[in-house]
Amino acid sequence: MAAQYPRDDIMSDNEGCPVKDWATDYDIFDDDYVRDPIPVWKELRETCPIAHTTRWGGSWLPTKYEDLQAMVRMVPELSSRAPNVIPPSPEMRAELIAEAKQYGSETPPITADPPEQIAYRRMILPFFTPKAVEPFRASTEALCHDLIDGFIASGSCDAAVDYAQQIPPRVIAAMLGIDPDRGADFTEWTQGILELGQTQPELRAKYRKIIREFFAELVVERRKEPGDDMISKLIACEIEGEPLSDYTVIGMCNLLLVAGIDTTWSSIGAAMWHFAGHADDRRRLAGDATLFGTAIEEMLRFYSPVTMARKVTEPITMGDAEFIPGDKILLNFPAANHDPGVFDQPDDVVIDRERNRHIAFGVGIHRCAGSNLARMEMDVALRVWFERIPEFELSAPEKVTWVGGQVRGPRSVPVSFAT
Ligand code: HEM
Hints:
By secondary structure, this protein is mainly alpha-helical. It has a single domain, classed as CATH 1.10.630.10. 48% of the residues lie in helices and 11% in strands. It has 19 helices and 14 strands. The strands form six sheets. A three-stranded antiparallel sheet has the order 3-7-10, with helices on one face. Strands 4-14-11 form a three-stranded antiparallel sheet. It has a two-stranded antiparallel sheet with strand order 1-2. Strand 1 (50-53) and strand 2 form a beta hairpin. It is globular, with a radius of gyration of 21 Å. It starts with 21 loop residues before the first helix and ends with a strand. Bound molecules: protoporphyrin IX containing FE.
């Protein structure tokens, strides 16, 4: 299928119309798909493993594990310069192109291709090794206990809003050396970029500006008075003897703030939703702490939150799909994690799954730099919750809401428990 369509259009003619054919007209924001995409992936994998749509600026959607594995290795034919699932508005696109010409990649390494990407990635990996993350475990535990102290006496809470959502912004703030008490702001900004901003370009522009201005001020401060925090350490980094520009330091801080919030909160929230609604799994985990490790990997596999995008730079044919330069490809890691060719019982949650080669954190040169941190946060969030509230359930299943697109996860999970 050769694609010919206006790639910079945010809205296509069919926007808002129900999907009739998922293979040629999928909609990643369709309500049923956002709630439960698994049946669609199964159908596509069997009939049209790389689907296409003209909606939301047009894109391709692979569903097979092996295709995803191949695509992440197609560098630079599939470029990371535009990794959002929805293209920016024409105005923002013009701004980004002008900035890229003047300063380079916007939020490296995630928006960079090799060789540039390699140097930026090397700079941030040391911040997120298991050893670097471990010192933040105790404060994350204390935070989780504080959050639970705030609602346990009432016998109910929203496990997404009052718990999952509160953890990642504060943990990454502590690591970056910014004020953890502004956690609610960081959450709002991240939602403005990754969630609401995907379909509302004015919000994406607004929050991009807010985040960049926030870090611009801090970069000035830390240049004057360096501390032991990540921003100061990034300022001190060099590439071939040259210090990083303010534009680049701000972009990297922007990435480190945004990349770990919505994603990890979605994973913790999905796990809370799962265990609230599945008594067998909940009781099994509550009764056997040795299962946390495999249960967390299974939550990451089954409810993988993140879809990234690549931009085609050279014509490529894969199966029946013909990609042409300018096309957007959605790296559908979540669907790959349900491929029956790789996982037994892919559409069942198996909390003691032994072999689980999921790619929820991506794979290849851009594989998630923060995966150790994300796993630590999930581990602490679930262990502390189960220690304090081993028995809980959905109190209003009809009020559960999910969002999708770049990051999929539950946004409201009302639960109740005995006090
Ligand atoms: C469960 C939580 C998380 C999930 C599922 C997740 C998923 C991903 C995925 C799929 C990618 C690959 C991007 C690509 O191929 O274009 C990625 C990259 C990245 N993630 Fe995460 N992430 C999570 C948490 C975090 C956290 C806590 C941080 C910490 C700041 C973080 C920082 C990053 C960075 C810096 C990259 C870019 C790496 C590069 O381009 O070299 N992530 N993440």
